Amino acid sequence: MATYIALARITEQGMRSIKDTTKRGDAVKAAAGKFGAKVKDLYWTLGQYDLVAIIEAPDELSATAFGLSISAAGNTRSETLRAFSGEEMQAVLVKMG
Q1: What is the pLDDT of residues 8-35, one digit of tens each?
Q2: Which of 33, 47, 66, 73 is most buried, by the most CB atoms less than 10 A from its CB?
Q3: Integer angstrom CA distances of residue 29 from 47, 61, 86
């Protein structure tokens, strides 16, 4: 499974129902399975981003479909980063020769 880090901002729509944000977080975790993904960790943060999620998905197509389906609800807008473990990065470096 590949790892992704999603950095999200709560939209104006999401702020109107901010008291439901933890319930929405639970719903996001449950929805991940539909895409073969798993939300490993979800954090509410201070600063430039309101939420950080650590997600595992079998491939980029699954991760993208999951992310788009969450964004389509309109409560958040996110950036998703592909993250590499030390072992994965070592494999990349080996390919460099």
Answers
A1: 999 999 999 999 999 999 999 999 999 9
A2: 66
A3: 23, 18, 26
Helix (H, G, I), strand (E, B) or coil at 70: helix
In the chain, % of residues over pLDDT 70: 100
Question: What pairs with residue 3 in β-bridges?
Answer: 56, 83
Domain that holds residue 74: 2-96
pLDDT of residue 56: 98
Give me the number of domains the chain comprises.
Answer: 1
Residue 64 belongs to a domain with what CATH number? Answer: 3.30.70.920
